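tool=predict chain=A
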Amino acid sequence: MSKPQRISISALLAHPERHEGKPVTVVGFYHGSFEHSAIYLAQADFQHHVRAHGIWVANRIPDSLSDRYVELDGIFTSSRGHLGQWPGTICGISRAVAAGADAP
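tool=predict ok
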């Protein structure tokens, strides 16, 4: 697999066709729970249920990273995620670590 391209969530959302099937690295606020696994532009987007600012995360990542800012490496696809409610999906997660102020 080629090295992931570091890209903002907003750039993925604006031009998903440019990144279809490609490895990416994104940073954002992650929330994982029963039937919810997504990375958002910001914590407020999760709190206010703004799915248009989020991307479904198809793989389970460690529970310890939920409700924190994280950096993820995975494959982006414009697949609409769980129940078709998301503008895109990141699957094949190869790395998930805390980021920013949430980093150890």
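DSSP finds two helices and six strands in the chain. The longest strand covers residues 23-33.
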